[in-house]
Specification:
Layout: H1 7-27, E1 34-35, E2 41-42, H2 44-60, E3 66-68, E4 71-72, E5 80-88, H3 90-94, E6 101-108, E7 111-119, E8 124-129, E9 132-138, E10 141-144, E11 153-159, H4 165-175, E12 180-186, H5 190-196, E13 202-210, H6 211-222, E14 227-229, E15 245-252, H7 255-262
Parallel strand pairs: 3-5, 11-12
Antiparallel strand pairs: 1-2, 3-4, 5-6, 6-7, 7-8, 8-9, 9-10, 13-15, 14-15
Helix pairs in contact: 1-2, 5-6
Length: 263
């Protein structure tokens, strides 16, 4: 199966899930939520989006198991599986920010073959895969995504919700490498999209994240010239038989940029 062949079916699924999310976003003045086992918030929008995506992926691809933040199907030792976050940026959703997304990735042998991110408020679809160039599509306008690199300036995207002392120290380190540093705080998987589009050069994250938080963005970033590596500089891999956690990473624009900052 060529990854470009699943772009349109996945887009339609994400548009359907987005409508469910927006209905709740617009109908509730104060978003109702509860706390999960890890103290992260959960809304009815997370659950409805998860059910819609899972049901429709299963109809189209009945033999591919699904791993989601909101429910893990039996998928141990499977070479190929879907990895989804039905509502990435739940805190942003609750705060009535626009920076929440839907993430869907297809994983094979630990590698992200395909990734799609949908931004419900903007109705923006972003996708990238092993056999096609990453692109974004909004209001019928499509543009290819390509990362960029500069030895003079560095644009860093960081989390609005999860900044730590380690991120701050890393930013100070980069100030020694570049003449000019600019910070672009953002929510959800939009940070990886900023690197993929060339608007930023790097997204560092030193805390734990779920595999479903970055897998779709990883595929998109690879299809635009970049990559995501762990804190030991190895490319991130995804597995169906672990705890589904990633212990920090760098989302980078390209190898030339990364080589420059670690010299």
């Amino acid at each position: 199966m060529k990854t470009r062949e699943i772009v349109q079916p996945v887009k339609l699924i994400m548009e359907g899930a987005s409508k469910l999310i927006i209905e709740i976003y617009e109908s509730q003045k104060n978003i109702d939520f509860q706390k999960k086992y890890d103290d992260s918030p959960l809304t009815i929008a997370d659950l409805r989006s998860n059910e819609f995506i899972s049901t429709n992926l299963k109809k189209l691809f009945p033999d591919i198991p699904i791993i989601s933040e909101e429910g893990v199907e039996e998928a141990k030792k499977k070479e190929t599986f879907w990895l989804i976050d039905p509502l990435d940026g739940t805190k942003e959703f609750i705060d009535k920010s626009e920076e929440f997304t839907i993430n869907i990735a297809l994983i094979k042998n630990g590698k992200p073959l395909f990734g799609a991110i949908y931004i419900p408020i903007r109705k923006t679809f972003i996708a990238g895969g092993k056999d096609f160039q990453a692109f974004s599509e909004e209001n019928g306008n499509k543009r290819n995504l390509q990362t960029c690199f500069s030895k003079e300036n560095c644009r860093i995207t960081i989390s609005k919700k999860h900044q730590t002392a380690k991120e701050q120290r890393f930013t100070r380190y980069l100030k020694k490498k570049f003449k000019k540093i600019e910070l672009f705080p953002a929510g959800s998987s939009l940070k990886i999209c900023l690197v993929a589009s060339g608007d930023c050069h790097i997204y560092p994250r030193f805390g734990d994240v779920g595999q479903w938080d970055i897998a779709a963005g990883h595929a998109i970033l690879k299809a635009s010239g970049g990559n995501i590596v762990d804190l030991d500089m190895n490319e991130i891999e995804y597995n169906s038989d672990k705890t589904f956690k990633i212990n920090g990473f760098y989302a980078i624009s390209n190898q030339a940029f990364f080589s420059h900052i670690i010299q």
